[in-house]
Here is the input.
Amino acid sequence: MIHFKNKGFTLIELLVVIAIIGLLASIVLVSVNKARIKARDTRRKADFHQIQLALEMYYDDNGHYPMVVTQVLSTAGSSWIPGLSPGYISAVPVDPINNGTSPWSGNGYAYWYDDNAHYGGKNYDLVAILEAPNDSDRCEVKCWKWFDPNQNRPWCPQCPGGAPYSAYIYTGR
Here is the structure.
């Protein structure tokens, strides 16, 4: 009589290996997602820097910032801040997610521009939403202010104000 030695894995061993692989995969996915969020926030800040430079060049040539009838949102495939492209910037950047919803809504991922026309185009506000909860440029950390010749009014609710805590705001002049 020939005896065969068991060659293989038990069901318990296979389940343990599958559980370990699942755990490692979930850790990797969380890390990748955090990296993507950080990359999108970094791009938003870089986009604002490019827009800021273009706006300052426009101001130097025209004596005011581009004026709009109402505040505008970034939209793909258009020059959403009139007069900037192509003279001052090749293409006006849009938010990496760009769902076309205002940053003032709870889940809006679009850039927002206001020339504060009631002040003669002498200043502007750019607003985006940052995704990373620990970003040092979020509104609740910086307590951003918007331009007002009479007072420095706060953007952020705890200041008090009106912007979501996750807002990233750049105010010119």
User: Anything to note?
Assistant: Residues 11-172 form one domain. The chain has two helices and six strands. The longest strand covers residues 124-129.
